[in-house]
Amino acid sequence: xxxxxxxxxxxxxxxxxxxxxxxxxxxxxxxxxxxxxxxxxxxxxxxxxxxxxxxxxxxxxxxxxxxxxxxxxxxxxxxxxxxxxxxxxxxxxxxxxxxxxxxxxxxxxxxxxxxxxxxxxxxxxxxxxxxxxx
Length: 134
Fold this sequence. Notes:
Helix content is 41%, strand content 19%. The chain has helices at residues 18-30, 40-50, 64-79, 116-130, and strands spanning 10-15, 34-38, 54-58, 86-91, 108-111.
């Protein structure tokens, strides 16, 4: 989903921490995008109804819901042009090969702690790849 004059691309923030969700959402809004925050258990429905252009995952690698989300994201990316949604993972490691089942769907890994200086360039990079600038 690309932006139009009236509607900015949607970003779905998935995580268990309400505080981290608020922090990430504010960073997303600073870039000029709309953010929706969901728990991992409710994320599957949000992926279907919102069809976001960017998904930001704030999950631990061992989170059991993470494997299901990675599989759903893999299927969505296979069905849509430009491998959308783009996926940004917030993690303690910046090596996507250390994330089980995540290598095929993660575009960028952003190291914790979450800061504007780390997350904003990642969001801008996937937007540029998606063609949201232009």
